[in-house]
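Note to self: keep these together.
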Amino acid sequence: MATPIHVLFLCTHNSARSILAEALLNHLGRGRFVAHSAGSQPRPNQQPNPLGLEVLREVGIPTEGLRSKSWDVFAAPGAPVMDLIITVCDNAAGEVCPVWPGHPATAHWGYPDPSAGDAPDAVKREAFRAVRDALTRRLQALVQRCPDPADMASLQRLARTLAEEGV
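Structure:
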């Protein structure tokens, strides 16, 4: 088997969208992809949003080991080298990111924050499901259309095309 493609999903708090993307790609990628997630301002106590974990478990996605973490972890010496970095929130896309080892491909896939606002949990749960399902469609397309082996230029082109297609 070829070396897996390492993907880092970034969101400001690393508690909802990026956690969903990490878990989904690790499941869908079946070892061909290794997904990670991080944030510029991770959630206190390194806890993902419970509703995010709930909607992952609803569809049989494992949630063990998921935690909020700083993006500094992935810019430090000895960190896994990323092949692709995808921002999943508009705030993170506008922030000054660390310098990533290996000069990975980049893309922005913006999704609304399902945890934002004061809506009741039932409404937020539906928002989490909508983001989960949208991410699933886009990640399935990434897994299916990614060339093997993937080079940085084709990986970036594909990731950005998927953003434009609105899969």
